[in-house]
Every structure is written in structure tokens, then in C-alpha cells.
Amino acid sequence: MYHDVGDSYVLNRSEFPTLINVLSDEGYDVIGPTRRDGAIVYDKINSDSDLPTGWTDEQAPGRYGLTRRSDDALFGYAVGPDHWKRYLHPPRQHMWRAVKTEKGLAIEPAPVNPQKRAFLGVRACEIEAIKVQDKAFLNGPYRNEHYAAQRENALLIAVNCGTPASTCFCTSMDTGPEAREGFDIAMTELIGEDQHQFLITAGSDAGAAVMQKLSLTPASQKAVAAAQDVINETIEKISRRLETQGLKDFLQDNPDHPQWDDVADRCLACGNCTSVCPTCFCTTTEELTSLDGDETERVQRWDSCFTADFSELGGGPVRKTTKSRYRQWMIHKLSTWIDQFGVSGCVGCGRCIAWCPVGIDITEETRLMRADEQD
User: Fold this and answer.
1) HEC assignment per residue over 18-68
2) Which of 175, 193, 199, 239 could form a disulfide with 188 if both were Cys (CB 3.0 to 4.6 A apart)?
3) Which residues have CB under 8 Å from 366's CB, separation 6+?
């Protein structure tokens, strides 16, 4: 049976291992959620036993932990500290190598080595985060060929969110909980008293080709309605809000708001928020020279606008205080990013809230700043 893009089918839980096997047979490294070191992180998946079956996460400002569920859901969690950015825009990227020869320096650009990967369990907010990075690395004046190679060889298998964390606010950003576009396959996990299955839909020809090799049945109206109920119930569970109306101009017009001082007194400038953010892409470069001086290598690595030397120019940093660094991050994320790329740099995943050691909440800081405006 040919599976048209957009048509819905049902994949039984017992057939889920076949999906992983088909992806592997097609030459994909399957990357998906695993439970490790007390968190759900993305790593290579060899079978469904590697998935965090029956586990969920509990999150709050400055808090993250795992606990058992009452069922055997494969994707019954929100998001962890990890993100797909690590595979598309890796923490360390070799740029070029220079070797001393008899004729001078020979410069060898780092080869572009695309890897065929299937990302299993991508949330709607994470798809939007990938699209944000596409704007920076693919659509700008300087195309990143290393990113482009990994992106073009990535198959995105989305799973619509059924278990949001208390830190999630994707509904405010219009980025979830349902994946609407940008995926190759989208699934909704359905668990009842006597059934465990997935509503599955192809979003591209590549996704349809994978589904062609699975044992699927056309979705009944009941299954489609059940999947929609999961989405609706998730939306009802998301209580955290970020008021985005007029936020872009408000932040740019209030660089001296007293709330910046208040948050600076609490911020540790550790950079955790930028490390776990799925859209942050700041980098720096470093030179690695051999002891004999005959060769050197340039490496690009992740950096953070919270580090003092990130803005160093002419012998000193432009942003010397924690206040100026936090202000730079938040205004860029929620305001000037829109000037650069036409979209917000925030997708409402809530990672920066949960993984901030002191529990700074970007939605609460914004609310407090705008309290005077509302008065």
C-alpha cells in the first residue's frame, strides 16, 4: 500500500521495533531519547529497549528529575537538557589544518563528512528550533557547509507532546505541542486500557518511503480523534505564559529597567541557559599548534554570551557586568533576533528555566518588567 503524504495510519506498539530496523536498514544512524545519568538525553538507538520506556520528567525552575510513569509510554516526557543541535551544529568543529612544507604552509580545509541520521522523538518546539538555526546557517549570507551537510542527511521523526513540563510555554510561542510542518514523519502516542499504538503521518516523500516498509493500517476516525484529544489535553496542561504582543519593542525600549539589576543579583553568569538552549549558536575559534610548530589547526567550539571574554574587543570586554550579559541574552533572544531572522529566538521549550541553577524564569522576568507597562 502506498502511503500518501498527509494520510494517517496506525502503527501498533508491537511493530515499533520494525521502524527502528527499517531506518537502520536504510543506512540511518537512529538517534533518540535514552535514560542516562538521571536525565533523558539523545544518543544512538539500536532497539526500542534503549528508549526511556515508562519514565517521565518533573521540571520546575532550577529543578529537573525523572520518575516512573504508571504506563509503558515510550515518549512520556517533555524535554531534557540535550537537543538535536549537538548533531547538526556540534560542540567542536574542525575548520582547517595548516602544515609546514618545503614550499611554505599548506592549508587543508576540514572535509565535510555528512552522516545519515534519523532523529526519533523530535518535539514540535525542537523542529521550530531547527528551523531557526536553518535561518542562521543556511539562509544567511554565509552558508555553513558542515551544518548543511548534516541537515540535508537528517530524517526528522516527530512525536507530538502528550506530557508537558511545568516549564513549557510553547503555546505562547506558537511552536507546539503539535508538529505541523518540517517533519518527515509525525507520530502521536496513544495509550488506552487495552491498546498501545501510534497515529503516524508522513510529512515528506522520504518519510512516506520509510512508512511503506512498515505494517500499518489506515487510521479510523476514532484513532484520529484520540490523537487530537492528546493534543488538546496537552494544550490545557500548559499553564506557563509569555505575553509576546509588543514584547520586541518593549525590550529594546527599556535597557535601563530596574528589573535588569534584580535579575543580575541572582544570575551566576554560568551560561547554562545558552548551553541547553536549542537555538543558541554562538561560537568562538581556537588555534591548536603542535609542539614543534610544524602544524596548526583551527577549531570552532560553542561559546556563550555570558562569558566575560566573549565580547572582548581591544583588550577588554564590551559587556563587563552580569547585568549587561543577561540583558544581551534576553533582548537578543526575544527581540533583536526578530530583526535578524524574522522570528523569535525562543521556542518555549523551558530548558533555560529548569536548568538555571538559581531558577531564573524568562517568562517571569518578562512579566515583572511589563507590570509597570500594564499598570
Assistant:
1) HHHHHHHHCCCEEEEEEEECCEEEEEECCCHHHCCCCEEEEEECCEEEEEE
2) 199
3) 242, 243, 247, 330, 334
**What residues does 59 pair with on adjacent strands?**
64
Computed from CA positions of residues 272, 273, 278, 279, in that sequence, does the dihedral angle turn out positive or negative? negative
Phi–psi pair at 188, nearest 5 degrees = -125, 125
pLDDT at 5 (0 to 100)? 65
Residues in the chain with pLDDT values less than 50: 1-2
Which amino acid makes up residue 109? Answer: P
* Cβ–Cβ under 8 Å, residues 44 and 168: no
CA–centroid distance for 33 within its chain: 13
Angle at 31 between CA 27 and CA 34, to 5 degrees: 145
Q: What is the pLDDT of residues 113-150, one digit of tens each?
A: 999 999 999 999 999 999 999 999 998 788 999 999 99
Query: Three cell numbers at 193?
Result: 486500557
Q: Residue 119: name the closest of 77, 81, 155 by CA.
A: 155
DSSP string, 99-130: EEETTEEEEEEPP-----EEEEEE-HHHHHHH
Decide: residue 361, CB within 10 A, 0-12 exposed, 13-18 middle, 19+ buried.
buried
- Dist CA 344 CA 338 (whole Å): 5
For 317, phi then psi, to 5°, come to -75, 145
**Closest CA relative to residue 171, chosen from 32, 362, 348, 33:** 348
Closest to 157 measured CA to CA, from 116, 210, 196, 113: 210
Are 59 and 165 spatial neighbours (Cβ–Cβ below 8 Å)?
yes
Nine cell digits for residue 132: 531557526
Cell of 284: 568562538
Is-contact 299 285, C-beta < 8 A? yes
Any residues with CB less than 8 A from the CB of 313 and at least 6 apart, and which? none
Q: Which of the 8 DSSP states describes residue 14?
A: G
Quote the CA–CA distance of 170 and 123 in Å, as a whole number. Answer: 11
Q: What is the total residue count of the chain?
A: 375
Q: Which of 74, 134, 104 has its CA nearest to residue 278?
A: 134
The residue type found at 20 is I
What residues pair up with 39 in beta bridges, in sequence order?
Answer: 36
Which DSSP helix (H) or strand (E) runs through 222? Answer: helix 221-237
